[in-house]
């Protein structure tokens, strides 16, 4: 698997694949790219840990969610809030991409706005438009948009696809 990663995505390192729930990749020290099928504390803890341990001065995180995934609840929400407090000074962008319509997209958008408000301006964004999200993250990270799109597809394949 490592040779395929290096060949197709120079600089991408897979740092976590968890029981079909999530896959986290890293481009260098400044960019974490993650795909998630679950918003439980157990699933999200590896990402929060990587964010807290980062020594980057301008960390960018792009979190791509499976359609219909709810915002973090209970312990997961508490861990997220604690992570935002610790990482606020070195976070350049925390971008969440959700899909579909209806209640869960609205709930995730509201959660992102609430976190931004209560954190005093934490750089969190939520979008349901993957192409514009990829462009924003590409501009912030200087990793090409095509590379990000292909890396997301690769990460989704590691957890059985978006629909699985």
Please characterize this protein's 3D structure.
The two termini are 21 Å apart. The chain has six helices and six strands. Helix content is 46%, strand content 23%. The longest helix has 16 residues. Helix 2 packs parallel to helix 3 and helix 5 packs across helix 6. The model has no long low-confidence stretch (mean pLDDT 84). Helix 4 links the parallel strand 5 and strand 6. By secondary structure, the chain is α/β, with parallel strands linked by helices. The chain is globular. Strands 1-2-3-4-5-6 form a six-stranded mixed β-sheet, with helices on both faces.
Beta-strand share of residues: 15-25%
Helix content: 40-55%
Shape: globular
Distance between the termini: 21 Å
Low-pLDDT parts are none
The number of helical segments is: 6
Strands ordered across the widest β-sheet: 1-2-3-4-5-6
pLDDT average, as an integer? 84
The computed structural class is: alpha/beta
Tell me briefly what this model is.
This protein is of the alpha/beta class. It contains 6 helices and 6 strands. The protein has a 6-stranded mixed sheet with strand order 1-2-3-4-5-6, with helices on both faces.
Could you outline the blueprint of secondary structure elements for this entry?
Layout: H1 2-8, E1 12-18, E2 22-27, E3 31-36, H2 41-53, E4 59-65, H3 74-87, E5 91-97, H4 103-118, E6 124-127, H5 130-141, H6 145-158
Parallel strand pairs: 3-4, 4-5, 5-6
Antiparallel strand pairs: 1-2, 2-3
Helix pairs in contact: 2-3, 5-6
